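Worked Example 4.2. Consider the chain below.
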Amino acid sequence: MRAKRPDLGLTVSATTRTPRAGEVDGTSYYYLTEDEFSVRVAAGEFVEWANVHGHRYGTLKSEVERNLTQGRSLILEIDVQGGLNVRSSYEDVVLVFIAPPSMEELEKRLRGRGTEDEETISMRLANAAHEMELMDAYDATIVNDDLDRAAAELYALIESYETDGGSTCDVCDET
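Applying the procedure from the previous section yields the following structure tokens:
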């Protein structure tokens, strides 16, 4: 999406999990200790944060404001809980649920990454099942069964909202 729309802002999330191979602090995530995360929560530095898959993740207000002050539309790549929390802070937010084609395909993708143990995969699948129940709380749903098609749908959705406030029924699944 950013290749097609480099003007879109993208935030870097904070997390308490340890970096995976190849991830870079400040680019992939801001890697914080539990204590650092707690201090920032107490200081009100997050737009949203949640416990996800056994770790805390959150979006810093400074990341959002940095993009918004530049007049940029912004993508927050966050979990379902976080998306719903953002809506309470920004009334003009558009929530897009990116859904797997099926739970079986999601499991295949998780196993194919080779980055999680069996316990983590089971937890992620259970969390995904719960998140799918919240899909109707989002403004639009895009099924990620084909990357190019899903990206084209997201592109059309963003364009629709930026140009006319967003009639989405022609670019996404009705929810």
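The mean pLDDT is 90. Residues 1-73 form a domain with the Guanylate Kinase phosphate binding domain fold (CATH 3.30.63.10). Compare this with Example 4.1 before moving on.
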